[in-house]
Amino acid sequence: MFRLTYKQVRIPLKRTFTISRGSRDAIDVVYVALESEGITGYGEAAPNHRYNETAESVTGVFKSFESGGIKNPFDSLHVNEYIGSLHQSEFSAKAALEMAVLDWVGKKLKTPVHRLWNAPSITGPKTSFTIGIDEPSLIAGKVKEAEGYPILKVKLGSPYDREIIEEIRKATDKPVLVDANEGWKTVDEAMDNIRFLAGMNIELIEQPMPSSMHAEMTILKQQSEIPLIADESFTGREDLGTLSDAFHGINIKLMKTGSMRVAMQKIAEARIHGLKVMIGCMVETSLADTASAILSLWADYADIDGHLLVSRNPFTGVVVNKDGYVTLNDLDGLGVELKEDIFD
Question: Deepest in the core among 74, 101, 116, 289, taking most CB within 10 A?
């Protein structure tokens, strides 16, 4: 029998974070602890308004958890069926619960999850570091703050997109990824921006247009010189054959898929359809980012910098090494440690 404890925590950010949909100075996450036999597994939900989730809606899922619901934590099919039965949506809550179970199982077996899953390494791709939308005059300072990271990810979707990119290119020749967060609303607008970006040494573009505009994205893919990656268009429940008509790759985020195991299945499915795989994250802390880092061991790209953007981080886990690579440790379970008492 598992005992579930959960706690909503407001996490301040190091600086205001702005994307095309708005700005924020803090995030509300919900941590869970699953305890049985003197062993505790941890999970993190980082809900996002884009997917109609809040910390309050997440805690509603945790309230419906029954102590005897997970009868056999080693039976992944049973675990995911039970977690899935708690709510039709609320995928960040489901991700947190599955994380906690996997963390518990690894600790029970005295083995890291990445070893249980026969990961090829403990080192994933180099992670990008995100620069949010800001006044062009402030961009050079942000680039300097990120000088320790070899790849930059730049949020676009504002009236001064080109000025932002021009300021970045004045400051650095590092590889740059662009994320428009659905900010370009027509094929003509998107193509105009892509032509500009093609001359700025941009490696890829995430979600140029709204997820509802699949037909337009199919046209855009045929014309784009730069690889296009689905973010908001990919939650984990789409047909990847259809999605491959409009994108060159997918961004897998645990808070969207609701499951590390589902994410692994989607990585394999993406390969069948010739899609590149990025493992991304919401703005979250090291607990969720460590779970994502495990998935990145099988990915082409990593954008696992949520824990680098927060000024309070109750867990330790994944690190970004001196060369920018996502790196795991050999601790049992997910490989995280609680460093402050958040469940009091």
Answer: 289
